Amino acid sequence: MFKFISKSLHHVRSDARASPFHNLCFIQIHAFSSSFKPIKKYPNQHSFTVSYLINSCGFSPEKALSASKYVKFETPDKPNSVLKFLKSQGFPKTQISSIIRIYPSLLLCDPKKTLLPKLEFLKSKGVSRTDIIRIVCTSPTILKRSLDKIVSPSFDFFRNLFQSEEKTLTAIKSYGGLLLFDRQTHVTPNIETLREAGVPNANIMFLLTNQPRAFMASSDRFGMIVKEVEKMGFDPSTMNFVLAIFALRKMTKSTWEKKVEVYKKWGWSEDEILAAFKMRPWCMTVSEDKINGVMDFLVNKMGLDSSFVARRPKLISLSLEKRIVPRCAVYQVLLSKGLIKSNGISLSTLLQSPEKCFLEKVVDKHKEETPDLLKLYKEKLDLAK
C-alpha cells in the first residue's frame, strides 16, 4: 500500500530549514562592547568588510569572505547605523546577528528609509514588539521588500481573504513570510485546488492561518500532494485532510521512507503506519529520534505492546520528558499500591488528558492514600526543564 506513497512523494521538497538562532556569536560594535580582540587582516580586496562581518556580526571567516563578494563597504558608518537601529528597536544581539547572517545586504540600507517603515507598519496593525522581532528574524527579507508594492497589498489581500484582521495577524505571526508570497502563483490557485477537492472553506482558512508554509508550493506540486492525500483515503471534509497535506508538504520522499522504516523496526506494518497517519498526521512529522524515544519508553520500560501505540498515534506526538515520563511515574505508583488496576484506567487516557484534568482526577483523587504523589510528579517535571 505504501508503494504509491513513495512514487508520488519524490516531488515533495523539504521545507525544513536550520534554525537561524543556532550557535550564533554575539554582535559586537563599539557601542555594544569592546571585548573582541582585533583580528588579523585577510589578503582580500574587501578585507575591511571581512573583518567587520567577523568582529561585528559573528560571521565565520569563510562566511565573511563569501558575503564580501556581494556586500562591500570601506567604513563602518552605514553598517553601524543598521546594527544600532535594530538594537534600538529591541532586537537582542543574537537575533541581530542572525538577521545579518541571513541577509547581509541589510548592512547597506538606510535604517530610517528602508527598515523603519516596515516595523511601523506591523506595529500599526497591532503586532507586539516581541512578535515583530520573531517575524523579522524568521523572514528578514521583509525588511527590504517594498512596503507599498508588496507588504501592505499582501496584508490587505489576506485580510480580505480571512474577512478578519485578527486571523490575518495570527497567520502572519505564524509565518511572516506570508506577506512575501506570490499570491497569484501560490495562494489563489492552491486554495482553488482545495475547494475543487471538496475541502470546506473553514478548513482551508485554518490551514492558511496556522500552517501557511503548506501553501509555499507551485500549483502543480500542491495539486500532486492533494491527489496523494486523496489516494491515501483521507476524507476531504475532515481537518485531517489538510493536516496530511501540510505533513507531506514539509518532508522529502527519503525523510518519509526513513520514518516508515523506524516504525517498521518497532513492529508496525505498512497498513498500521498508514492507518496511524490517517488518524494522526502529526505522527509522521516528528523526528526519528522522537519516535524511537517514545516507542522505547512505552514498549521496553512500560511493557506496552507496539500495536497498542500504533492504534493511538497521538502518543507519539506527546513530550516524552514533560508528559509521558512524569505521568507514567504516577501511574506506576498507583498501580503498585493497588489504587488502580492494569485493566482499569486507560494509560493512554491518562497520558492524553489535559493537565488540569490529570491533576484533579488522578493526582488529587489519591492524595490521601499517596500524599507524596504530587511531589513525585513535580520532581519528574523539574527534570525536564
TrEMBL record:
The source organism is Actinidia rufa
PANTHER family in UniProt: CGI-12 PROTEIN-RELATED (PTHR13068), TRANSCRIPTION TERMINATION FACTOR MTERF15, MITOCHONDRIAL-LIKE (PTHR13068:SF166)
| TM helices/strands, residue ranges | none
Q: Name one Pfam family in it.
A: mTERF
Keywords carried by this UniProt record: Transcription, Transcription regulation, Transcription termination, Transit peptide
UniProt cross-references to Gene3D superfamilies, sorted A to Z: Transcription termination factor 3, mitochondrial
| InterPro entries membership | MTERF, MTERF_sf
GO molecular function terms noted in the UniProt entry: nucleic acid binding
Task: Tell whether ATP-binding is among the UniProt keywords.
Answer: no
What does the similarity note say? Belongs to the mTERF family.
One BP term from GO: DNA-templated transcription termination
Q: Can you say what this protein is called? A: Mitochondrial transcription termination factor family protein
